[in-house]
Design a protein that fits this description.
heterodimer; A: 4 strands; 51% helix; 9% strand; globular; B: 125 residues; two-stranded antiparallel ribbon; 4 helices; 43% helix
């Protein structure tokens, strides 16, 4: 069942008929929590992966683009100082979101939420990608 | 009389299907949103609320459907257990190569599609 606030977010997004997706980097992250971290949350990560389709959350792969292209663009975001040094995974999530033409990224990550939106839009425009708005889940629950 | 009602309701279902298509079919999404691992971790796991019976034995509450419009006092916390774990995982993920990242995605997708993700099958290799 999960936490009430998270289920309410999912219900609210469904009510508004928004499509919801999880990018490849997030699927990998969940698998890492499930398999390689010794933490009580392992079971939650496995549950999230196995129920993701039942919750109506779309998964997608970017095989046609290639992981190297994603990585190069992610490093360009880091090079521009949009994210703290070394936060490659956060940058990869942004690029994967934009490559799937998804306009909103919902996250609680401090680094992602701290990005300058104008600078990010300008950078993504340089890569011929759509602008991505990064938002805290709370903003989706007015 | 009962059989008549049954027939009628069955007929109504058929005509609904004929006129409006499959009622279960989801409408087209307005636009897509991305969720990160934090949100997904918070969606899984057990409800923390338990109700005590008169005998003092805790009984797990039945899962209830969340009404998105009611319970306006429910707010999404700034930091959650899920966000702390996801931050730890992301620290590790920052050191991954593109190949490792792709490998982790592939194995995660195996669980999504019902396998164990342990790469013990030939198809994985």
């Amino acid at each position: 069942m999960g936490k009430v606030f998270a289920q309410r977010l999912l219900a609210k997004l469904r009510l508004r008929q928004h499509g919801i997706a999880a990018p490849p980097a997030v699927i990998g992250e969940l698998f890492h929590i499930a398999s390689e971290m010794s933490h009580p949350a392992n079971a939650h990560a496995i549950e999230a992966l196995s129920k993701i389709q039942r919750w109506g959350i779309e998964t997608y792969s970017l095989i046609s683009v290639g992981p190297e292209i994603v990585e190069i663009n992610a490093h360009k975001l880091l090079g521009a100082g949009l994210l703290p040094e070394g936060e490659v995974h956060d940058a990869v999530i942004i690029i994967e979101t934009a490559l799937r033409y998804i306009p909103i990224l919902i996250t609680s990550d401090i680094h992602l939420l701290g990005i300058n939106p104008a600078k990010l839009s300008s950078m993504l425009d340089d890569f011929d990608l759509i602008p991505v708005t990064i938002s805290h889940p709370m903003a989706m629950l007015p | 009389m009962l059989s008549h009602i049954r027939w009628q309701s069955g007929n109504n279902c058929q005509s609904w299907s004929k006129n409006y298509g499959n009622p279960i079919k989801r409408p087209l999404a307005e636009f897509l949103l991305i969720l990160t691992a934090t949100n997904l971790l918070n969606m899984s796991g057990k409800q923390s609320k338990v109700r005590k019976s008169t005998g003092g034995t805790p009984i797990a509450m039945k899962p209830y459907p969340i009404d998105p419009e009611s319970s306006a006092d429910i707010t999404y916390p700034k930091t959650t257990e899920g966000s702390k774990i996801a931050a730890q995982a992301r620290k590790h993920a920052n050191t991954w190569t593109p190949e490792k990242r792709h490998e982790m995605f592939k194995r995660g997708m195996q669980i999504v599609y019902g396998a164990t993700g342990d790469c013990s099958t030939k198809i994985c290799r």
